[in-house]
Amino acid sequence: MKPFIMAVFMLSSVVMVAQQKTITRKELLKTALDQKVKSTEIQEIRMSAGQGAPEHLHPCPVLGIINSGEAVFQIEGKEKVLLHEGDAFYEPKNVKILHFDNASQKNHLSLQPFI
Asked: pTM of whole model > 0.90?
């Protein structure tokens, strides 16, 4: 009986350890780029409290994620949206970005675009 109890105990311990090491994935953004990619760049951008980016466009698609803070984001022809920490964003090629502004007047905004 003791070997059986030991085997059950060991098996339940292995199951608990396996459950603690589970990898989880959460899709943040899925988009088609429709172009050949020859190189890419990842940056970290920090914006001061209340700071906004001027209207701009990119010669290539830009994907990114908000590391901390909140951003007011608007692509030409679309509604403004509020991006929160952990949100992903997509700026299409050759389309005006009307707003990419720090939504806070007190805290900085940190984001990582993948160009």
From this structure: no
